[in-house]
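hiii, so i know i said id send this last week but things got crazy w the move. better late than never?? heres the sequnce for the chain we talked about at the cafe, plus the structure i predicted for it. fair warning i was half asleep when i ran it
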Amino acid sequence: MIKYIDMHCHCHEYSVEELSRFIGKNISLVCVSDDPVSSWKTLELKKKLGITPCIGIHPWEAHKYSEKHAKEIVELAVKNNVKCLGEVGLDKRFVSKTYDRQLRIYEIFLKAAKEYDLVLNLHTAGAWREVYELLVKNDINRAYFHWYTGPLNLLDEIISSGYYIGINPAWKIQDKHRKVIMYASLENMLTESDAPYKYKGLELRPDYVIETVEYIAKVKNIQVEHVLLKINDNYEKLFKSPL
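okay and structure toks below
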């Protein structure tokens, strides 16, 4: 059975029982982490539920950690055969005061992604250009821009570089994201929830990816099944492995 994919979920904030219910709805979860503690929790969820784990340090948490902590997370990823670092990246919109620390930590994850051929599950708020240019500079092959709301002209460059963007249920209330969905090619889309984040009264949930697939199909005037197949294909290309 072809699965729905949630490419960016903070699974460590849910109970195992709650996650099991989402998985029971035929949703495959890619679980991101915020810091060392949640990275360990995500690895435990991999053992219990078979989710796809991403471990890292969120830019919002960067002020609490050093390059040493980032290197320890890289070591943890390699030791546990984790193929994805996330949530990692840069943020100039919400936490610009810690940008220098964010950058030092992000550069460690960039080097690791290059050395070990890892996926980067990226936070890029207000720093879309900076994140992208560092990917190119470091010759990164596999990257995913979570909940993309950046400039459309940069989107052209992201797509031409073979990177992927996240389509989030925020399309329900966010006009900027709806424009991205209209503009972007299905060839470079993946669905996500960013659950359990609350955005302007919208409580994001993994099962909203089902409605998101339906919305993409409507916007692109194609069959839901075709969107679902392509999202699965994109996941497999990004991770170089089947679900």
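btw The radius of gyration is 16 Å. thought thatd interest u
miss u guys!!
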